[in-house]
Amino acid sequence: MRVAVVTGGSRGIGRAIALRLAAEGARVIAASRRPDPPEGVEGAALDVTDAAAVDRFFAGLGRVDVLVNNAGLAGANALDDAALWHAIIATNLHGTYHCARAALARMPDGGGRIVTIASVLGLRGVADQTAYCAAKHAVIGFTRALALAVAGRGITVNAVCPGWVATGMAERRWQELGLTPAQAAAGVPRGRITSPEEVAEAVAFLAGPGAAAITGQALPIDGGGLALP
Ligand code: NDP
Questions:
Q1: Taking CA 16 as the corner, what is the angle to CA 138 and CA 172, rounded to the nearest 5 degrees?
Q2: Membrane-crossing residues (predicted)?
Q3: Which of the listed residues 143, 167, 194, 226 should we mutate to test ligand 1's pocket, taking the one with most ligand atoms within 8 A of CB?
Q4: pLDDT digit string (tens) for 80-110?
């Protein structure tokens, strides 16, 4: 049975990914600070910003076939808030690094998969999102370089870049921007918000055997682009 770790698997996009991978028959561990796994998924308490805790967690698993770096934190105006800046970088970037390093040490050669949830903000700038944009651009750079570093082991490393996805994170941002969900949807060319399950579908493909030749890529999942402030 394949072993898959989904960080931030307790809510939102991570929860949908955990359920999707479990439906394929994998043993799935959803790791977050406050574990609340969906049915059929194991929960684990983990703060991805804590390198030593990440190492202990992965050492306890033995083998890992799939790592989904999904745990994330967003926040506006970090330019004027150093604590927020460091928290956003620590969660999105350092968390991804800690987990990738620990998982790779336990990933068998041939068939291993790392998929990181970046963002369309990893591909463009938004004025009040300096830390989040920096972190998401960085995880895409990390993905491209790490893919080359482990290509010879038959392990693939990819990122997906969602636009608006209906979760608590997006709802908080819409409130900040004074947008209703319908107004946010109107800024998407296809006219609706992406569901967590639609992101999970792409992640399951990249994590599966059919995507063995795809590595070092950053795949937008944004309904054709996004009107952002
Ligand atoms: P949510 O805020 O709904 O969920 C975030 C998840 O991450 C929770 O399970 C949370 O659990 C976990 N988490 C946060 N910090 C840590 C930490 N330090 N260690 C371990 N787990 C942590 O977010 P989404 O589901 O919306 O976002 C998931 C990913 O998708 C993120 O990387 C986000 O940046 C990205 N994304 C989201 C978009 C959207 O529109 N929703 C668009 C583009 C990208 P707990 O608090 O218990 O630790």
A1: 65
A2: none
A3: 167
A4: 999 999 999 999 999 999 999 999 999 999 9
> What is the residue range of 114's domain?
3-166+196-221
pTM (predicted TM-score): 0.98
- β-bridge mates for residue 159, sequence order: 116, 218
CATH number for position 156: 3.40.50.720
Nearest to 193 by CA among 181, 204, 202: 181
Q: Is the dihedral of CA 113, 114, 116, 120 positive or negative?
A: negative
> What total of structural domains would you count in the chain?
1
Q: How far is CA 183 from CA 164, 192, 200, 214, 228, in A?
A: 12, 10, 24, 35, 11
| pLDDT of 190 strictly over 70 | yes
In the block, residue with structure tokens 């369309």: 120
